[in-house]
Write a structure and sequence with these properties.
The protein is built from five helices and no strands. By secondary structure, the chain is mainly α. The chain has a single domain, classed as Glutathione S-transferase Yfyf (Class Pi), Chain A, domain 2 (Up-down Bundle). α1 packs antiparallel against α2 and α1 packs parallel to α3. The radius of gyration is 15 Å and the shape is globular. The mean pLDDT is about 90. Keywords: Transferase. GO terms for molecular function: glutathione transferase activity. This is Putative glutathione s-transferase.
Length: about 140
């Protein structure tokens, strides 16, 4: 999508977007999976140690990546934001594992970006609701 607004024309911004996508692929996603998959397999809530590791490995990484910017790469929505919001939709709505007061930048970013995507609620809400229901069933 070289001509898409989601893919910055500016080479520096595109490189920064690629860097963010790389951080997601090599750091955030693996740590996210290491946290969530055991609960799906065992039907058990994550331990306090697992939650701490998740906060240190995933939530703090999100905090650094989104920072104080309007969007991940600056003032415009990019593919990086779409990727980030897809993961955040699995976390932010779950009050048991995401404390909005502890990660206000991430919470604000989530609200801002999801609000910019007119199809977000329609496409993602059923998955958010299913995940929330699942987390409530964990022992």
């Amino acid at each position: 999508a070289p001509t898409s607004e989601l893919n910055p024309k500016n080479v520096q911004k595109r490189a920064y977007m690629d860097q963010i996508l790389s951080v997601v692929a090599t750091h955030i996603q693996p740590n996210f999976s290491a946290f969530s998959i055991p609960s799906f397999r065992t039907n058990k809530k994550p331990s306090a140690e697992s939650i701490k590791k998740f906060e240190d490995g995933v939530l703090k990484a999100f905090d650094v990546v989104v920072g104080d910017k309007k969007f991940a790469v600056g003032d415009n929505l990019t593919l990086a934001d779409i990727r980030l919001i897809s993961l955040l939709a699995c976390i932010v709505p779950l009050a048991d594992i995401f404390d909005r007061s502890k990660y206000p930048k991430v919470a604000s970013y989530y609200d801002r970006v999801s609000g910019q995507l007119p199809y977000f609620e329609e496409l993602i809400r059923p998955h958010i609701d299913e995940r929330a229901k699942f987390w409530k069933t964990l022992q």
